[in-house]
Amino acid sequence: MASKSWSPTYLANQLWAKQPKANAELFALTYGALVAELVRDLETNDKIQAELDRMGHSMGIRSVEEFLAKASLEPQSQTAVTCSQFKDTSDVLKMALKMFLGITTEAGVQEDSHFSIQFAENPLSLFVELPPDRSDLEYSQLLCGYVRGMLEMLQFDVTVTMAQSVLRGDEVNEMRVDLNQVLQAGAGDDYQEE
Amino acid sequence: MVFLHLFVVNRSGGLIHHRHLSNKAPKIGTNEWLRIGSTFHSLHAIAAEASPVRLPGGKNSNDGIEEMVTGGMVLRSFQTRTGIKFVLTAEPQTPDLGQVLKEIYVLYTECVLKDPFYELEMPIRSELFVHAVDALVERVQNAVSISPTKHR
């Protein structure tokens, strides 16, 4: 029992409970309007996705701080998760996604340099059916940029893609995070050695 | 016990916010503040490098100066995972500085980062943030003065 109440899931639920909530329809419709506008303005799916990715990135580099700040106020935060390898990051990422989107995610692949997380519900694509001429569009690319921005602030250079997407006919949404390199903060290698 | 100053240093050592929190605080000009901010940033980095204890991988975000105590004041620093330093000075014996800093970090994320016109790493000129910090400081000081025996 005691160990259960200290779990990452418990902490994620605590954080989610304290977040202010927005109307899910307003949220989905606002995002829909945004994507529709981009579809009108930009021609190719690649350009649209690049723009969504960029927007998500600038959101991610800001909201990672909110997650860290609020999580560190929770008394359980010190013991809930310790990241000793890159793939442990997925546990923390799942907490952040719960906190900001309220979605429950499942761990997918867990390898040394990449992991994936799966989620059935996607609050962004509540009312969406992709038109035939846009059937390859990755509608939720914003989420990928978002995760990329968050991890970038923590010195992880990653590539994030949607490996599976319900909108494109897959069973589940699956986001795949590949680690390119760990960026160095602070003094360079010259100063590290005697 | 009184809080004296708050300053915030970005990850490249630039001062992005500074203000006094009470009338007791010594008056310091903006140029001096910039110097204090970058000097503290350097000392913090040196302290981290000089630490004899190394965690595996050679990195430890908790390294560096956390607290400095002198006869007349105590300085408490909190560095976030993303490299921003929040530093608070106060009169000696002031309790809970670490907790207050964590709450200031939350206020920063709420009031500053959510402003779409705020650019990261740039000086903070958010009135919302200033008011929120004032309210927090007042709340903490009242809470302590109600139970003065608790922390003596």
Concise synopsis of the structure shown:
Chain A: Keywords: Endoplasmic reticulum, ER-Golgi transport, Golgi apparatus, Transport. The complex is a heterodimer of chains A (194) and B (152). Chain A is α+β, with helices and mostly antiparallel strands.
Could you please describe the fold and organization of this structure?
Chain B: This is Trafficking protein particle complex subunit. Chain B: Part of the multisubunit transport protein particle (TRAPP) complex. Chain B: It is found in: Endoplasmic reticulum; Golgi apparatus, cis-Golgi network; Golgi apparatus. Chain B: Belongs to the TRAPP small subunits family. TRAPPC4 subfamily. Chain B: Keywords: Endoplasmic reticulum, ER-Golgi transport, Golgi apparatus, Transport. The complex is a heterodimer of chains A (194) and B (152). Chain A has one domain (2-184): Trafficking protein particle complex subunit 3 (Muramoyl-pentapeptide Carboxypeptidase, domain 2, 2-Layer Sandwich), CATH 3.30.1380. Chain A is 49% helix and 15% strand. Chain A has a four-stranded antiparallel sheet with strand order 1-2-4-3. In chain A, helix 4 (45-73) crosses helix 7 (141-152). Chain A has 194 residues and is of the alpha+beta class. The longest helix of chain A has 29 residues, at 45-73. With 152 residues, chain B is an alpha+beta fold. Chain B has one domain (3-146): Beta-Lactamase, CATH 3.30.450. Chain B is 38% helix and 18% strand. In chain B, a hairpin with a 5-residue loop joins strand 1 (3-9) and strand 2. In chain B, helix 2 runs antiparallel to helix 3 (127-146).
